[in-house]
Amino acid sequence: MRQKIIIDTDPGQDDAVAILLALASPELEVLGITAVAGNVPLHLTEKNARVICELAGRRDMAVFAGCDRPMNRPLVTAEHVHGKTGLDGPVLPDPTMALQDRHAVDFIIETLRSHPAGSVTLCPLGPLTNIATALLRAPDIAARVQRIVLMGGAYFEVGNITPAAEFNIHVDPHAADIVFKSGISLVVMPLDVTHKALVTAERNAAFRAIGSPAAIAVAQMTDFFERFDKAKYGSAGAPLHDPCVTAFLLAPDLFTGRHINVEIETTSDLTMGMTVADWWGVTDRAPNALFMGDLDAPGFFTLLTERLARL
Ligand code: RIB
Ligand code: CA
């Protein structure tokens, strides 16, 4: 039985790799791709989502534009990481496939209502604005979501955009608070694990050796966006944050974590968007998330490289 998923995304080179991995994997049925403002403004994230679908040969994919700013805060973007276009690195043609007319939030609500309860997984790869807006507008869908597998947050790794907060959660902490309090089954890929999925020179060479336009584009994307993490952390390569979400759907045993309580800071300016993860169980707060801590990186890259070669 194919897993039915909706990918909610703010491409973003790492989002692009996550989407390509999903489109290359027959185990997954991507019902639609919903764009949200995040790494770059919405008019670019929706365009980039279509660019990536065309790179994968999927002009048939339904791509929707969603919220163009966080629920209660001004938009913060990350061109310093992803470049002005959000997909800097490869030179890719402008998309010619259509953007869907429906708003992404309406698509999420209607899809969850029209599919059997518990049959659709949501895969947010950016700020959680679209997801939280759908939950507020249609509270009935919370019981219909099979689970949410998201990239966001950090505990041991602390913040990548502020000293305390990871980008996706920091951009829209109120949306994250709604999602983390929704009662929906959550699987969280924080920086603690995504910083272990590094595109080393050897792994990048393996992408390039595939030789296809999609694989070469991935090599060029990761060559570009590694700069931020190399400069800040001395990383051995670009961290493939968002592809951890797709890889979990395909091979959950690549990951290890704990089912713990995670709550979101939404008031302090100092720690806004921090994921307060009770990793050591020092509170009596109820566990609400499978929070990942480790990854079989060689296994992850073997899976990713094999699947990219199928595009
Ligand atoms: O902090 C990393 C996350 O922020 C990733 O999803 C990346 O694409 C950006 O959205
Ligand atoms: Ca992202």
Label this structure with key terms:
about 300 residues; alpha/beta; Inosine-uridine Nucleoside N-ribohydrolase, Chain A; 8-stranded mixed beta sheet; 12 strands; about 40% helix; binds alpha-D-ribofuranose
Biggest pleated sheet: 8 strands, mixed
Q: Flag low-confidence runs.
A: none
Topology order in helix (H) and strand (E) letters: EHEHEHHEHEHHEHEHHEHEEEEH
CATH superfamily: Ribonucleoside hydrolase-like
What is the CATH T-level topology? Inosine-uridine Nucleoside N-ribohydrolase, Chain A
Roughly how many Å apart are the termini? Answer: 22 Å
In the sheet with the most strands, the strands line up as: 3-2-1-4-5-6-12-9
Class from helix and strand fractions: alpha/beta
**CATH class category label:** Alpha Beta
**Count of discrete alpha- or pi-helical segments spanning 4 or more residues:** 12
Number of domains: 1
| Small-molecule binders | alpha-D-ribofuranose, calcium ion
The mean pLDDT is 98
The appropriate CATH architecture is: Alpha-Beta Complex
Computed CA radius of gyration, to the nearest angstrom:
18 Å
Oligomeric state of the chains in view: single chain
What is the global morphology?
A: globular
